[in-house]
Amino acid sequence: MTWQDFAPASTSRKRESTEWSITYSYDSLNETLPRVLLIGDSICNGYNGAVRGMLGGKANVSFWASSKCVTDPDYFRELDFMLDARPYAAVSFNNGLHSLTTNRGEWDAAYASAVSFIRAKLPQAKLALTLSTPLMDPALTAVSASLNETVLRLAEEQKLPVIDLFSAMDPLDRGEFWTDTYHFKPAAIEMQAKVISDTLCGLLGL
After folding, report:
1. Which residue range is the domain that position 148 belongs to?
2. Buried b (16+ CB within 10 A) or exposed e, 20-42
3. Alpha-carbon gap, residue 26 to 43, rounded angstroms
4. Going by C-beta distance under 8 Å and a sequence separation of 6 or more, which residues neighbour residue 71?
5. Cβ contact 51:38 at 8 Å
6. In a 3-state reduction of DSSP, which class is residue 83?
7. Does residue 81 fall inside a structural domain?
8. Which of 82, 83, 154, 199 could make an SS bond with 121 (beta carbons 3.0 to 4.6 A apart)?
9. Is the pLDDT of residue 153 over 90?
């Protein structure tokens, strides 16, 4: 089994002018605690530190935040690298906000394939599907919600837990809790981290 077996054979998506990836493996010498892997985008890059703090003494944290859509030719190669990097007890998987303009059929298929790949690579790990957050723009929020519908259907079909950041954020005042169209102020980030941490602790019995 290789990542090429799961990656899309082709994609119509045009890459962003700057594509990026950020990875951290906190407390990498500590092998006594279970390790969780957070996968996402700049929202994940925002909340990973807070999740680490909330899981302190219970679990170690690694994260991969990237601009890449699951349909990007490099996505599965990088995902494979991260899944091989450490033994993980649990994974929080998100992809969506950099996919708002991606061909929907291609995204649906690639997202489902990514979930299958994670489950095949880490059959013993607990996998939770993390919903994309709402945005300041109502039209973009509707697209995010639509992508989340695909995630929810897949979670139901495969009996996977869902980390619902969308419902946690959507009732909040955009002016008070957002910094721009996509990103959040510290108070909202703490709320996101609490939802994620509580779910992961529940999955791992911590």
Report:
1. 3-8+20-204
2. eeeeebbeeeeeebbbbbbbbbb
3. 18
4. 8, 11, 13, 99, 102, 103, 106, 107, 110
5. yes
6. helix
7. yes
8. 83
9. yes
Residue 98's identity, in one-letter code, is: H
Tokens of 168: 């946690």
For residue 76, being part of any structural domain is answered with: yes
Q: pLDDT band at residue 159, thresholds of 50, 70 and 90?
A: very high
What's the pLDDT tens digit per position in 38-96?
A: 999 999 999 999 999 999 999 999 999 999 999 999 999 999 999 999 999 999 999 99
Looking at the DSSP bridge assignments, the partners of residue 66 are 21
Domain contains 133:
yes
Arithmetic mean of pLDDT over the chain: 97
152 lies in some domain: yes
CATH, residue 49: 3.40.50.1110
